[in-house]
Amino acid sequence: MLKYTSLTKFHWLTFTNFVISYSMKKIQMVDLKGQYIGIKDAVNPAIQEILENTSFINGPKVHEFQKNLENYLGVKHVIPCANGTDALQIAMMGLGLKPGDEVITADFTFAATVEVIALLQLTPVLVDVNPDDFNIDVDAIKKAITPKTKAIVPVHLFGQCANMEAIMDIAKEHNLYVIEDNAQAIGATYTFSNGKKAKAGTIGHVASTSFFPSKNLGCYGDGGAIFTNNDDLAHTIRGIVNHGMYERYHHDVVGVNSRLDSIQAAVLDIKLRKLDSYNNARREAAKKYNEAFKHIDKITTPYEYGSSDNHVFHQYTLKLKDVDRDGLVAFLNENNIPCGVYYPIPLHKQKAYKDDRYNEADFEVTNQLVKDVISLPMHTELDDEQITYISEKIIEFING
pTM of whole model > 0.85? Predict the structure, then answer.
């Protein structure tokens, strides 16, 4: 009788989980289709208009989006381009950095940040990050500066601004450029110690962003942009993105072919109008996750410093302690919950970027984070039922 009761209970719990997961909307890491459904009445005719007027490259929609994004960010110049990696490379090209110049950036980030440094034959100098917000460690920047250092690339990781006030102070002291990698934090607002506010990507000498579909402001293909308040630098960059031309067939600088197409600009312009509401939806989802995990000692929820508008939650990333992270990933996948590990290997350990100069003791935080972090579904269409199901499954695994 006891055996029968136990088995019946097991079957009942299994059946209950099945009913819950079956009735619930499918969980996506990023729900682009759900977001599209909410704006398709604006998107479809905008795309159709471009198909009919055939202004596919540098058409009116590109210039319209550019101006609207300049107004939103409060920056003098937005130069659209083909993708976020190009944007970062072109920013460095515009600054006139030379082969051998050292560029300091974070070890814990996506490879594109260091990739473009290497492509330009500059010397990447990787440093550790903070254990709380995962952004570049200001003290590590200071220690890494040499006479060859020419620039710092802070990455606003997972949607939260790096410590830009301190970074700009360091740059001023050592006469360095600051190139913001803003691929993950568009719409975030940084607050200085005096109360002044500025949008991420408008504080350094120049910034880059990506409009990859999964970004907070994403298009339906590839896209990117460069931001700056420097008129001369903006002029140089406008030439670089278009084969070095300011006048057709007159090549004044060495350039590349990197232009945002009109269809992507049209999509982005529609989404830009909703960016603040999209980011607020992400913040609300993050709060609900935080509430669900607040009593779980083995979970550290994302740290937020400064005002609430400083983080736009491109990713919602947990730190685990004494938890089988890979086992949790497998368990979530078995329960139809997507998740991600950003990032599983530090850049200084990647084959392409290994350097004998690096000392493992200098990457203590990054080396631990790659073992402990896990990112959960985070997007504008995430609902309460999904958040509850995700968080309950994680707690179930942790509690054994």
Answer: yes
Residue 9 located in a structural domain: no
How far does the chain reach from its first CA to its final CA, in angstroms? 26
Q: What is the mean pLDDT of residues 123-136?
A: 98
One domain for residues 75 and 166: yes
In a shared domain, residues 265 and 279: no
Asked if 210 and 183 touch (Cβ cutoff 8 Å), the reply is yes
- Compute φ and ψ for 380, nearest 5 degrees: -75, -20
- Find where tokens 């330009």 sit: 120
Cα separation, 228 vs 93, in Å, equals 14
In a domain, 225, yes or no: yes
Task: Report CA Rg, the chain.
Answer: 23
The answer to whether residue 108 sits within a structural domain is yes
Q: Are residues 263 and 280 in the same domain?
A: no
Residues 279 and 266 in one domain: no
Whether the CA torsion 223, 217, 378, 375 is positive or negative: it is: positive
**What is the DSSP secondary structure assignment for residue 99, as one 8-state letter?**
T
263 and 316 fall within a common domain: no
**How many other CB atoms are found less than 10 A from the CB of residue 27?**
22
Domain that holds residue 210: 37-127+134-272
In this structure, are 247 and 337 located in the same domain? Answer: no
256 and 297 part of one domain: no
For 29-48, write each residue's pLDDT tens digit. 999 999 999 999 999 999 99
Please tell me the distance from the alpha carbon of residue 228 to that of residue 78, in angstroms, as a whole number.
Answer: 7
Secondary structure of 232-294 in HEC code, one letter for each residue: HHHHHHHHHCECCEEECCEECCCCCECCCEHHHHHHHHHHHCCHHHHHHHHHHHHHHHHHHHC
Q: Facing residues of 261 across strands?
A: 57
The two tokens of residue 29 are 């890491």
CA angle 144, 146, 148 (to 5 degrees): 125
Q: Over the stretch 298-345, which tens digit does the pLDDT of each residue have?
A: 999 999 987 789 999 999 999 999 999 999 999 999 999 999 999 999
- Give the total number of structural domains in the chain: 2
DSSP calls for 75-92:
-SEEEEES-HHHHHHHHH
Strand duo 316-320 + 224-228: pairing: unpaired
